[in-house]
Amino acid sequence: QKAPEDMKLFFLKNPLDTCNDGTRAGYYLREHEGSKIFLLAFSGGWCCYSKETCDTRYKNIWRLMSSSGPEAERAGWGQLASSATQTAQHPSPPALRASQSMQRGALECALWRSSCNFKGSGTTAPLCISIGGPGHSLKEVFLLTSISAGGTGMLLDLERVVTLLEMLGAEAVQVRGLVDLGWFLDLKHPRQSDCSDAASSAPADAIKKGLRMWKRILLEKCKLKFKRVDEWQCFLGYRLYSSLKSPVFVVQWVFDKEQLRLENIHLGSQSLTEIQWNYLKNLGRELSNSQCAVSAVFAPACLSHMLITKSYWLEFQVKGISLARALQCWEKSLQSSNKAPKICMRSCPFHLIDNCPWPYCNPTCSALHDHGIGHEVNFQLALFRMRPDVHSQGKEHGLPTQVQRVTQSGV
């Protein structure tokens, strides 16, 4: 049966379940009969931690804080799209066909919230009850997906969803998480002064400032690992991950453009200071290291932010494997976890991290767009302009030969 093209708007039944500004919380939903997957998607949008920063956030991205004036229907994006070209439902290529059940859920919806939403955690339970409780056929898998800062909120809510489904008599449902760019690191950053703007405040700074305001319920198992003053670290995916019982698949660019922007680093035509250059290299190294213990991960060495929301998300590969293929392998491994034989990771891998130390050393990366000059730029030339010494270090640090040749010639 063909799924409807657009997702339709619904509101939560309890008027006390609201957005930041007091308007009723809602979600977009598309039903597709016959699927065994229930897909719930949360959006991102960073956070705010004071009246001033929340006012700014409301002014700039009010859709993440309010349900006033929404469209009755909206098209899905990336993995939520109904288009076969975006959702890996082509009938021919095995790698694309295989992840069909992952991309085409029985119920697909997007809730207005971010991880730093004051009532975001509180609206998760009534949302699950509204569309996954009595009156709806139970599915085999409940997949929570999220993007950017919404990934933090999803990870914090994951085990609560498991408990809730058990209370609803649906303990047989398998709960899983798919987080896209919710893996912020608390590295020592190159900022010279504090910034009061939430949109450009470093992750650790924003979390520390907002912890009391959000009154977020943290996972008890994670809290026990830290002193009370350091409990804010449970908002960081790589700190929280080991406290989770449910399977999680992490999608993450090795060089996250948003984390670099929060540290006031903008790759393009501008030059980089020694501190910024070292931070860039350290970010890629530390992010890769932080995901070594993650059982399922897809991390291309590209400079970007968010992946599964892109219409061309199927094009990216790590070591010759697409995200659709990796998700299929992950799904098969979970299905066979209690059966024999188990999936061999060598023939069907789902732990994929680029090991090259430079942005754009992955040939499937999208072109670099420099907002300062308004068009795409050749990253190799941009790298040379930012760091004139890079060609002399290229061979030592693994810069591809063709890139060294370009930077040396300057053309």
From TrEMBL:
It holds the Pfam family PAE. InterPro entries: PAE/NOTUM. Residues 392-411 are annotated as: Disordered. Signal peptide: none annotated. It comes from the Eukaryota. Coiled coil: none annotated. GO terms for molecular function: palmitoleyl hydrolase activity. One of its GO terms (biological process) is negative regulation of canonical Wnt signaling pathway. Residues 401-411 have a biased composition (Polar residues). Belongs to the pectinacetylesterase family. Notum subfamily. This is Uncharacterized protein. It comes from Pelodiscus sinensis.
